[in-house]
Structures are given as C-alpha cells and as structure tokens.
Amino acid sequence: MLSPEKNNITIVEDPRTGEVSLLGAEVIKVLDLDHFLQLLQVGEANRHATNTKLNTESSRSHAILMVYVQRSVKGKEENEGFAPQNNTRVDLSSGTGAPKILKSKFLIVDLAGSERIDKSGSEGHMLEEAKFINLSLTSLGKCINALAENSPHIPIRDSKLTSLLRDSFGGSARTSLIITIGPSTRHYTETASTIMFGQRAMKIVNMVKLKEEFDYESLCRKLEYQVLEKENDRLESEIKFVLEQLEIQKDQNKIMCDDVDRLTLSLKQSEERHLENYTHQKVLSETTQMYEKKIAELFKQLEDEHAKYESSEEQLLQESQLQISTLQMVLADTTQMYEKKMTDLSTQLEEERVRSEHLEEQLVEMRKHLTDSIKEENDCFQMKLQEMDQLQKNLMNELKSLRSERDEILSEKTLQYQELQKMLQRLVDEERQRKCLEMETANLKKLLSEYKIDLETKQSCTTNGSGGAASALGNQTRIIKGNKSRDALSGQRSTIFKIFEEVGLQKILDLLRSEDLDVQIHAVKVVANLAAEDINQERIVEEGGLDALLLLLESSENTTILRVISGAIANLAMNEFNQGLIMSKGGARLLANLASKTDDPQTLRMVAGAIANLCGNEKLHVMLKEEGGIKALLYMVKSGNSDVIAQIARGLANFAKCESRTINQGYRKGRSLLVEDGALTWMVANQNITISSTRRHIELALCHLAQNEDNVQDFVTSGGIIELKRISLESPREDIRHLAKKTLNSNPALVREMQKG
ARM repeat ranges (predicted)? Predict the structure, then answer.
C-alpha cells in the first residue's frame, strides 16, 4: 500500500533460507518512530474501502504490516586465529570472535471479513474482490484445520495470504489472534462460524525459538585484512634489512677508497723527495724500487679488492632486485585480487542498475501498453459508433423498402394495441370497482351503526326479527370486506404479472407517453416496482426506460408520478454504470429542479435518496456540483422532515468520504466542493441532531472533510474544530471517536490551529 501503482506483487521463496519475499513490494528503512507512524498513515490512506449494504467502510483487501528487525551481536569465542605459510600467527583472540545476527519479523495483519453476496449487495469489481477475499480466508481456514488436527500436509501454498503467514501459525513465532463478531441475530451463522474458527486456531501451539546467524562475511573480511597487514609488515622488515646491508657495503667501499687516496698521496710525496734528493738517488734507488714494488702490489691488491667489491655489489644488487621483484609480485597478486573483488562488486552493482533500468523500462512499457489499450478501446468504441450510425442508415433504407408491408404490420399492431387498451380498460374498471366497493363498505358501516341505534330503541318489540336482520347484515359486511381484500391483492398481482409477462417491457414504457393520466400512473408504478429488483435494472436501461423516466420527470406535474419516478431513479442509481448514465442525461439537474418546486415529504425523501446514491461516485462530484445537486440537498433541509434530513446526511457523508479518498491519493487538490457550497456550516449547526443514523453520517462527513488541509480555515471560522474535539470525546460510536482523534492528530494544519487556540 506504500506503492499503490504496483498491483502485481509476486511471492518468491528463498530455497536456501526458506524465507518468503515479495518481489515488487516497496521496502523502506525506518529512521525513527515518527517515520514509522508516517509510513503507517500512508498505507492506511491507500487502503481501498467502499460502501456496501452492511458497512459504509468495507475493506476490499487484507492489510499486512511487515517490520523486519535485525541486530548484530559480537560473540564471546576466543582462541580463533589464522596461520599463514611463513608460520606467522595472526592472533584474533583479542577481538570479539564471530559476530552473530539476531533477526525478527513483526507482523500486524488486518483480515478483511468474509462476505455473503446476497447480504452485502456487492457487484461488478466489488464482487470479484469479495470472491478473492473469501477464497484467501478459506485457504487460511484449511491451514488452521490442518495444523489443529496435526495433519502431515499443510496447504500453505494455496494462496498468497497463507504463504505470508506461514511463520505466524506454524513456525517459531508468538501469535495473537483477535476475532470480531456482532450481536445481531441476523448474522448468527457468521458469528458461530467465526467463533469455531477461533477455537480451532487456539489448538495450534507455536514453539518460540531465537533465530540467530553467524556473520561469516564480516569475519572473513576481518581475517583477510589482518593477514594482509601481517604480510605487509613482514615484507617491510625484509626490505629494511636489505637496505641496511647496502649501507654497510657502501661504508666499506668508502674506507677502501680513502686508503687508495692515502697511498696515492704517499707516492707523490715520495716522488717529490726523490727529485729533491736526486743526489741520494743511488742510495735510495733500492728503496724506491722496493716502494714501487709495494705500490704495484698495493695497486694490484686494490684492483682485486675493487673487482671483488664490484662483484659483491652486483651480487647484492641482484639479490635485492630478486627480493624486490618477489615482493612486487606478491603485492601485484594482492592488488589484483582486490581489483578482481572490486570488479566483481562493480559488476554486481552494474547488474543491479541494469535490472533497475529494466524494471523501469517494463513499467514504462506497461504504462504505454495501458495507454495504447485505452486508445484502442476508444478507437473501437468510435468504430462501433460509426457502425451503429451505418446500421441506422441501413435500417432507414430497409424501412423505406419495407413500406409495402407496413399495412399488415400496422393492422397487427392495431389489434395488439386494442387488446392492450381493453386490458388497461379492464384494469381501470377493476380499480373503479374497488373504489365502489370501498364506498359501499363505508355506506354499509354507516347503515349498520344507524341500524344498531334503531335496534336499541325497538329492542323490546322486534328482538327476533331485528337480530336476524343484523346478523344477516353483519355477515354481508364481512363477506364484502373479505371479497374486497382478496380482490385487491389478486388484482395487484395479476396487474404486474399480466403487464410484464404478456404485454412486455417496451409496451409498458410506451404507456409512459400516454395522454391518460391514470394509465401513466399505473405504468410508472409498474416500472418502479421492476426497478427495485437488480435483475430488471439492466433491461430497463437497455430498452430506454431511463430516458422515458427522465423525460416524464421533466414534463409531468402530477405529484404521484413525480414521487414514484424519483424512487425508481433512486433504485437505478444504486448501480455505478447507471449513475454515469443518469448524470450524462441531466438527471441530477432534473432532480434538483424537482426539489425546488415541490414540498411533498415523500417526494423529497426519494429525491434526496437518489442524489445521495450519486454522491457515492467520486468521478461525478464536479458534474454533480455544477448541476446543483449539493445545493439541492441543502435546500431540502427546509422541509424539516426527519426522513428527508436522514437521506441528506447520508449523501453528504458519501460525498465527503469519496472526496477525501481522492484528495489523499493525489488526484485532486483544493477546498472541498461541499465547503464551497456551504454544507460545512449546516453540518456544524446540526451535528447534535437526536436521530442516531443522521448524527452518525454528519459526524463521519465532518471527520473526512477535516482531513483536507485546504479546509482548515473554514473549520476555524465555522467552529468545526470545536465540534471535532467534541466528537472525539462524546460520539456514541467508538470508530467515529477514533477517526476524529486520528484526523486531529494527522492534519498538521489542524494541529497548528489547536496550538494557537
């Protein structure tokens, strides 16, 4: 219900964990309690409810609130570690061990009640919803019976409802079940079935178990990080050792270079002394040769040392390069491994993005397909209209070609019309005869009373004769009364049967155009009686009965005809399809005009009931306001009749409820149409009316109007906020008190106004 546009939710079971998930359902992370309450209010507002004969706010679906709670708990296990190949131990005992995850699922389920179609009056789309509701409840009952009887097979997968509730009535959960029943004896069967369902559910015993899992993924990531950290430390220490060896070799080379420099300097000094002491050359020649020999040996030794140094330095560099290349390979492998993981994660992210784009494309395609289908239906409808126009032209051509046969058909129709006139004349004669019998009965009663007075005065002399006459007269009166009631009942039944079965509906509708007022009245009554049955409404509309009734409503001035036609239109307005036809043909305007020109309470009650039924369709609200329907309801308040005011209150409640749902769903904005026409002022002034049903409808209308923030200023000026507070505390119905409190707390504008006050 957080995403109403997603109406095709599939249920998928995870083969590994066995958990049930909803593909397509929106999952939102809850930030705080206010965010949770806000989401709950959004779901409640999107929940679909409608008006049935049993309930003004009947839920058309089950509602499930799923809250997933997950908490990570650090474990207490120790002596866990990881030993790499180089025998370097990575001790994890200082950590918290393998973390655990505690998971919980909180379900609040509001099951829609099962419906008896003959009692709720559901039809069309509501009938399909009722079928699905009853089917899912039946599947739930089967699962409850199987669990209560310890059956080896539990039919959990028979419906989506039982699949979602499998943990609640058969798993490791704590489950509470609340069933609601009514005190009315009319619903005794449903009440008994509900109580038996609760008794069977009490036999089920759930074993509450704590569900915890080890978070191995985070533990693996921690171990990998510690291993890499230790390996990095080891490689850094080895590189540091190699660099220290290189520094030692450099110092040794520097010392040897200093020795060579020192020897070279000594040689130069010797040569200088040799030049200075040339006179002592011979003496010192041997010494010089000796020194030269030593110098040669030293040079050779120096060259050997230098070659040895170069070879050792080259070997050391090779070893260092080998170690560095090994370390680089290890580092490259590690980097490659992490790059591969990053690539895999990027691939998964890209797949999720592609999947999201694919879902968005599917949504766009579905919307496009829906638009195309609507366009195709419109085109098909236009083609059908063109075909009907062409068919009408063909029929006109055939009519011209069949003029030669018109005489025979006309003669046959004349005979049938004569028979119909005879039958209607016979009905009129029977009605006149009934009236004559009533008059005769009244006269006989009058004569009987006079005769009894005469008998009292002459009782002493004419006891036997007068007694016999009175007895005979009384018997005659009783016979006449019995004959009268039987004749009236049989006449009414035979009238409807003969007219509907023998004459046909089309001919009855033709009689609505008769110039004879009595014939029109009888025909209108027959059509109204037929319209009271759902099975006859479609046939009446198809054969032009609605058009004929609206035409007669516009042209007739007879009070009886106007009252009966208003009742027939009210019956037809119970159907959603008929509501659109009535509005498109100007029915609301005609009803509003009738309300303004009549003061008959029964006629006004019928007119108010018809407009109240039209108020239950939010698609017609704007047209209903433009046709003067709302103002007509408020105008009829002047009659002061309690039945009329009850119908007016019902219409305002239907209008406010449907309009509030439309505004909450975002299809409309602005002030309420009821407020614009002044209905709020009347409801605030009359919400303390004594009739319970009328008061209940007015309180519901006020609660729904207050949910629109654009109406708050009107509530302030009219005193509606004070009445809302009073309703939340003093209303005799608990559901209305709860709705008023919810409205006062959920509308920010109302909260601000109350804080100002």
Answer: 503-545, 544-587
Q: How many CA atoms lie within 13 A of 46 on its CB side?
A: 16
Q: Which two tokens stand for residue 463?
A: 């006891």
| Helices 734-746 & 692-706 angle (0-180, nearest 10) | 20
Quick check: 543 and 504 in contact, CB under 8 A? no
47-214 under CATH 1.10.10.10, yes or no: no
Task: Count CA atoms within 13 Å of residue 741 on its CB side.
Answer: 10
d(CA 655, CA 634): 13
- Which residues of the chain carry a pLDDT beneath 50? 76-95, 458-486, 488-494, 497
pLDDT at site 83: 36
Residue type, 182: G
pLDDT of residue 449: 59
Strand order, beta sheet including 100-110: 63-73, 100-110, 212-214
> And the tokens for 660?
């509030």
* CA distances from residue 485 to 424, 443, 446 in whole angstroms, order as listed: 21, 17, 20
Q: 406: number of CA atoms within 13 Å, CB side?
A: 7
pLDDT at 727: 85
Kindly state the DSSP code that residue 212 receives in the 8-state scheme.
Answer: E
Amino acid residing at 305 = E
- The reply to whether 612-618+633-757 shares the fold of 47-214 is no
Q: How many CA atoms are closer than 13 Å to the CA of 456, on its beta-carbon side?
A: 5
Closest by Cα among 608, 604, 534 to 576: 534
Q: For the chain, what is the largest distance between any 2 Cα atoms, rounded to a whole number of angstroms? A: 215
The answer to whether domain 612-618+633-757 has CATH 3.30.1390.10 is no
Placement of tokens 């014939």 in the chain: 519
Residue 459 has a pLDDT of: 45
According to the model, what pLDDT value does residue 278 have?
Answer: 62
- Return the domain boundaries, the chain: 47-214, 216-397, 612-618+633-757
For the record, the structure tokens of 697 come out as 């409808």
> What pLDDT, on the 0 to 100 scale, is given for residue 559?
86
For 221-233, b/e burial (b = at least 16 CB within 10 A) is: ebbeebbeebbee
CA geometry: angle 160, 164, 168, nearest 5 deg:
140
Distance of alpha carbon 744 from alpha carbon 757, whole angstroms: 14
